[in-house]
Amino acid sequence: MKEIDFLKDLVLKASKLITSDVVVKAKDDKGDLVTNFDYEIETFINGEIKKNYPNFDIVSEEFNTNEKLTDNCFTVDPIDGTINFAHGFPFYAIQVACVKNGETCAAVIYLPRFDELYWADETGCYLNDKKIHVNNFSPDKSLYVVEGRNNLPSLVRLDKIARHYRITYCSAINFAYIARGIFGGTIFRHENFWDYVPGQYLVKQAGGYIRDEDGCHIATNTKEFADLLYKYARSVQSDTVTATDINN
Description:
The longest helix has 17 residues, at 36-52. By secondary structure, the chain is of the alpha+beta class. It has helices at 3-15, 36-52, 82-86, 151-158, 171-180, 193-205, 223-233, 243-247, and strands at 24-26, 33-35, 57-60, 73-80, 93-100, 103-111, 116-121, 124-127, 130-131, 144-148, 185-189, 209-212, 217-220. A hairpin with a 2-residue loop joins β7 (116-121) and β8.
C-alpha cells in the first residue's frame, strides 16, 4: 500500500472514534487541555503504524513527545486544536505525515466537522479528490495567521503591511487553508513536529513556499510574503513583551 493511501484510510478510521462522550482534563497548569479522544485516537493510529510500518519511528503529541524526526518516521497529532474541540468549536483536525528516506512523502489533514480531507503526495495537493493550489494574492490583500507565543505583538507589527489576520488556534487548518487558497500565509513558532510537518508538506505540494529557521516555521503563497512574516513576526519571541517589540 502506498503511504498516502495508508494515511488517508488511517485518519478516516480514526475520526470515527469521536463521539459525543468527551472527557476533558487539564494537561498542565497553563490552561492547556486534553481529552479522552486525544489519547484514544493516538493509540489507534500509533498501533496501526506499528503493524504496517514496524521499522518506522513515531513522533506524536501524547505518547512520543520527546522523539525527534528520523529518516523514516511518522508524525501524529490526534487532535490539533484540542481546546477548540473541547469547547465544541469546529476548528480542529487530525493530522499525520510520513517521512521516508529523510523526506516527507505523504501527509493528511482531516477536518471531521467539515468532512474535508486534505492530502498530498508526490503528485500534488488535494481537498478530497480535487487538486488544490495556493492563491496569488499579494501580502497586503492576503489573510494570514500567526500561531505561537506573543502572536498579538507580531500581529500589531504586521498590521503595517498586512492587515487581514485571523486566529484559528489550529495550525493544521492554517496550513490546509493556505494550500486551498483561503489564507496567504502562516507562521508557527513552536518546535512540535506533529503540528507543522504535515501542513508544510501540503503547502509545498500546492505550490507554496516554506521557510524553517530556529523556532520559526513559515508557509506562504509566495517567497515575498514568507520574508515579510519572518521580518515582522519572527523577532518577537520572548515571553516578555515590551513596547519596543510592538513598535519596531
